């Protein structure tokens, strides 16, 4: 078989075949260097000092004694740190001022950066930082998040704050069945395995940052604006990243490292401790969500309202857009949604895997399950009866919506047809058993990116793109895409990523990274293949072509573009101890063309495990007196571990986006969406008691069984 245009034989596709990670051996043997491991001559170490009050001012810092300690080189604070520019629009909009460290004496929350101690060794820097005495003028603070906070207000962010059509109250009054319930999710923290770390140094008038981030283009652009530098004079490298989940953007440690390297004119490395990460890298805001559903007796929706409240800091406005999921999943004649925030004396929340969709799907999918119960209709059947034919709010057509197929395949494999719909009737010894389901969706977007492809005389190829592999397997996926574009085996392709010198590219976020980068890689590879087909001799330096997908992305037809999925869970509840155990889970997804089944399955399963953690374990509690989280470490903050994770299966159905040249969609986040709701719905089926507040702790199970309100 040959291509029609070039006559070059077409080899079997690499995309769609399982492939182990390209960098896997380097990672498990320790050969892969992460941001805090790259060696530098004359390296100095910085240690951040964080505030011990939640609101107030810095009155004085006793730096003289610290500067006299062994190895200490400098102490930077608001009195002597370089000035930075904060009035700009960056890659993701207005920056969080938390990253603009040491610019004033105000303290807006506990854990605010107040100084950086720089020393010859990390140990010296830490000892000196812990010895620095800071005097404060303390002020009253408010960290209490509650659903009836009087200062809440709507926020337009990535999406409009408020949407509405139809007369909601009239539609609810005319409905045969109504659900009106409030759901809450707690503050949650993402702590990737690799802590945040950055090393800054100046090389011949050019700033270079070795960093752990989710987008070199993002970090370069914001640093250039912060320090009023020509972007061409900044280079950001981030070859290996040990997890991100939305937290690895522009943060205080990078800016502090650049400041110190500028002042000392030598390389400076700043690494965050695990405890510091609870203050400085963002987190998922708590939410309070009210869902009102009105339906006919046959379960068809007439009214839908989804209102969400989340917290933000006093220095930056970030909204957890939980009501957004209702704008995609279900339609009704009266359809109203709203996202609101309240400012508190807390660190700024940020993007955390499936921001908005994860907590929003819990509330909405639990409410839909309650509606199915009231209507006496199977939960899957009720969802299928309410499948919209276009975007409920946008009115745009769906580029593909294979949710019904996900439910049908999932129901078949899970054995849903054998389910007794009555709650609290199945037992296994002391355990009550139940099953639950929920729908999942996540946007499938694309952003402009550039890539280069180079053909070498020895028959190999090098592809360069400023992508970030944060553990998703993006480097391997791009290798497979490039191999198909160049019509060669993957072994002949070397993909280089994580370097801003490769040109602008989308960050690893919003499940848009691999999709956006693949467009650029395929375009560059295809053009290079056409040039090689002309029989041109390859010079020693190779032949290179560059692609830019801005025009292609801009030409996309307006549509509702999403991945979809159906989540299934079986739980066992010990009515004596209140313990909830997930026994099995199944997720079936419609997420475009799967590039690498091996790493894709890992992404789906990882998201579903996050759902177990969200449903049963994760909960950061703020101490009202100090303003900080209780147990700000991985011992006090509970997450699902090996013993909590049962047999989990993830699979997918055929699904493509006709407007995507590679046919893929993002999969990094959809695995968590709906997972917590499926578990919560299964707990109801097991016990007959609804839990509307996450996590479903043993004490809450016992209280609910005893007839107390769900706590």
UniProtKB/TrEMBL annotation:
Domain Aldehyde oxidase/xanthine dehydrogenase a/b hammerhead positions: 29-140
Tagged with keyword Oxidoreductase: yes
SUPFAM superfamilies: CO dehydrogenase molybdoprotein N-domain-like (SSF54665), Molybdenum cofactor-binding domain (SSF56003)
Protein's recorded name: Oxidoreductase
Keyword Oxidoreductase tagged: yes
Matches recorded under PANTHER family: ALDEHYDE OXIDASE 1-RELATED, XANTHINE DEHYDROGENASE
InterPro entries registered for this protein in UniProt: Ald_Oxase/Xan_DH_a/b, Ald_Oxase/Xan_DH_a/b_sf, Ald_Oxase/xanthine_DH-like, AldOxase/xan_DH_MoCoBD1, AldOxase/xan_DH_MoCoBD2, AldOxase/xan_DH_Mopterin-bd_sf
Pfam name, any one: Ald_Xan_dh_C
Superkingdom classification of source: Bacteria
GO molecular function: iron ion binding; oxidoreductase activity
Signal sequence, start to end: none
Keywords, in A-Z order: Molybdenum, Oxidoreductase
